[in-house]
Specification:
Largest sheet: 8 strands, mixed
Number of helices: 22
Number of strands: 24
Shape: elongated
Radius of gyration: 35 Å
Distance between the termini: 87 Å
Strand order of the largest sheet: 5-4-3-6-2-1-7-8
Helix content: 40-55%
């Protein structure tokens, strides 16, 4: 007897469901896309327990006849394609006929539908893919599908579902992107009886952006409207001032279908070119329309990938369209000056008096001219005095030093002249060099290794190179320190130590920061609020998806906007699937350390360099949190070899 057997239909359906139904968000995506294909203008999505217990999708589309409704639960039964060539001209979101049979195979499903020309509707109940009950009923035109107890008959699949907040976050993300793709459809999303999203369906994409991202993002978006003979690109991109640390806020649509396109993303990044800082990404909502024969979406079961037959043309179109939108915007406001008479009051008076001289006698004219010359002389001397005595920059220097002192918690130190400090340091270095030379001349060769080993504990800063690298002398040669990398590691060690000991201090903000978050971000924030607050942030809900930040960790005193908080949430979004809480916290600490560390280009005084070197010695710093080295060493022997002294 042969070993190869044909699988039972129910087993085959469960296996096939694994390709289409990965999680509750997959169910929502397939059902809502079917509603869009049915010509709906209003779609309601109601969720319970993150979609694990209940998913309901209600639309006002064209509905299905009783025959079509029953046939739709057969595998590969579809009304959207008839022959193989139709795959090259797809104009619908669904086309395989796999969604409904796959969903019904792993759930308890109820479908109610009615067409406009039918007097009554049809209600079907299915369990595990099998129709258990069929009846006529009163129903509105359209389709109402309820999916209960997802994965009830595949407990292994159910076991690997994430927390409720994570699952509803994924569902929210799907509905958000579909609403951005179809602004003419009114979407409504509800979770456990609480409204998450509601759009008007008025066709204005900017209104949808406002509903999802908030007012601040919506008002900083740039409209993209560009086309050629074959393609059309429309949507919005953010100004370079509004960015995120990840690309999760970029949505690309091809013929109304949301896709993950590395090609389009690269084109957008190239369009911004030097306008973005490193590792920053704009918010993007772009919709590309082209002949369906030029794109293939039938390359993955989830239909999230797209292959273009003319990829270089698509790349150029996206790049040119976004570049045009950026160039047309006022990224740098023009300096508008009021066109006023540049003459001062004294000059105007002088001119007027000159005109009045004609009506006076010769003696009167001479006296009037003398008064005018004296008045003009006083005015010029006053102007020259103010020009000769410019404001001293001593005040700004003191403020800068105090700022650094605050960063390092240096107290009780007096400001000194840089020249005086340099002379004292030079004298100290010179004395130690002489002493070191004398000691080495008397010591045997085997002691030099010991001296070199102890050198790292006795570094004396000499100055900076390009205001980026600190040059210091040790007992055995020269050391060059990357000031940003070194301080980044010091900040990392400090924050990590404070976090582990529970001693992170929060600094209250004078003016709280306002955050407008998407629902997915809200769920992640609530889920990880304990860890975020343990890092020193004080965040509370301000109604709906608005949150306010009342406090930040001590050391973030120069925080000017909400960018750091948003980056922390983006980091949670990027790392959430890993599921390791300590890793999430560590990544946030690394990011905070990088943003609060001394930057390349910051001018440091010798006192500040000494403080940094002391911190390096205390934490035994050898590399930054990203793995880069912080210090380079050239021994005295290596220097002597380079200068041919030995």
């Amino acid at each position: 007897m042969g070993k190869v057997k044909v699988l039972a239909e129910n087993v085959a359906n469960k296996i096939a469901a694994g390709e289409v139904v990965e999680r509750p968000a997959s169910v929502v995506k397939e059902l809502v896309e079917n509603s869009i294909d049915a010509g709906s203008t209003k779609i309601e999505v109601k969720i319970k327990n993150g979609g694990k217990d209940w998913i309901q999708v209600i639309d006002n589309g064209e509905g299905m006849s009783p025959e079509d409704a029953k046939l739709s639960f057969e595998r590969h039964a579809t009304s959207k394609v008839e022959k193989a060539n139709d795959l090259f001209a797809l104009r619908t979101l669904g086309f395989r006929g796999e969604a409904l049979p796959s969903i019904s195979a792993v759930s308890r499903l109820s479908l109610t539908t009615r067409t406009e020309d039918s007097l009554s509707g049809l209600k079907l109940r299915l369990v595990g893919g099998e129709i258990e009950k069929e009846e006529s009923c009163g129903a509105a035109v359209g389709t109402n599908i309820i999916v209960k107890d997802l994965f009830f008959n595949t407990p292994v699949r159910y076991k690997y579902l994430k927390q409720t907040s994570t699952e509803i976050g994924h569902i929210s993300d799907i509905v958000n992107r579909l609403s951005l793709s179809y602004p003419k459809i009114a979407f409504y999303l509800e979770h456990n009886g609480r409204k998450i999203l509601e759009t008007t369906g008025n066709g204005n994409l900017l209104d949808v952006i406002f509903n999802i991202y908030g007012r601040q993002v919506a008002k900083e978006m740039l409209e993209v409207d560009y086309s050629d003979d074959y393609m059309e690109l429309k949507g919005y991109v953010s100004k370079p001032s509004i960015t995120r640390s990840s690309r999760k806020h970029q949505s690309y649509f091809v013929n109304g279908r949301y896709v993950k396109s590395a090609l389009m993303s690269k084109a957008v990044q190239e369009a911004y070119h030097t306008l973005l800082t490193i590792h920053r990404n704009p918010i993007v909502i772009l919709s590309l329309k082209l002949n369906p024969i030029l794109v293939d979406v039938n390359v993955h079961p989830t239909k999230l990938e797209a292959k273009f037959s003319r990829g270089s043309v698509v790349y150029d179109l996206v790049k040119k369209g976004v570049s045009q939108a950026i160039k047309a915007s006022d990224l740098v406001p023009e300096l508008k000056l009021n066109k006023k008479n540049n003459k001062s009051d004294a000059e105007e008076k002088y001119t007027q008096n000159e005109l009045d001289l004609d009506s006076k006698s010769s003696n009167q004219k001479e006296e009037a001219r003398k008064d005018i010359r004296v008045s003009k002389s006083k005015k010029e001397s006053k102007q020259n005095y103010s020009f000769i005595a410019p404001k001293s920059n001593k005040e700004s220097k003191e403020i800068r030093v105090k700022k650094i002192d605050k960063l390092y918690n240096v107290e009780g130190l007096k400001l000194e002249s840089d020249d005086l400090k340099q002379e004292e340091t030079k004298s100290k270095i010179k004395a130690e060099v002489i002493e070191d030379t004398m000691v080495k001349e008397d010591k045997p060769e085997y002691d030099q290794e010991f001296v070199a080993e102890e050198a790292e504990l006795n570094l004396i800063p000499i100055g900076q190179i390009h205001q980026t690298y600190i040059v210091a002398q040790g007992l055995d040669g020269m050391y060059i320190i990357d000031q940003h990398a070194a301080h980044e590691r010091v900040r990392y060690e400090e924050l990590l130590t404070q976090f582990k000991s529970g001693e992170v201090k929060t600094q209250e903000l004078l003016i709280p920061l306002n955050l407008e978050l998407t629902h997915q971000e809200v769920e992640l924030l609530n889920e990880n609020k304990e860890e975020i607050e343990a890092l020193g942030f004080s965040i509370e809900n301000f109604g709906g998806s608005s949150y306010i930040v009342r406090g930040v960790p001590v050391g973030l005193y120069n925080l000017k906007d909400q960018q750091l908080i948003l980056d922390c949430i983006d980091k949670l979004l990027d790392e959430k699937e890993v599921g390791e809480a300590y890793k999430l916290v560590e990544n946030i600490i690394i990011m905070i350390s990088c943003k609060t560390a001394i930057k390349a280009g910051d001018k440091l005084s010798l006192r500040e360099m000494n403080k940094l070197i002391d911190d390096m010695e205390r934490y035994e710093v050898s590399n930054c949190p990203h793995g880069r080295p912080v210090m380079m060493h050239l021994s005295k022997k290596e220097l002597e070899k380079e200068f041919k002294r030995i």
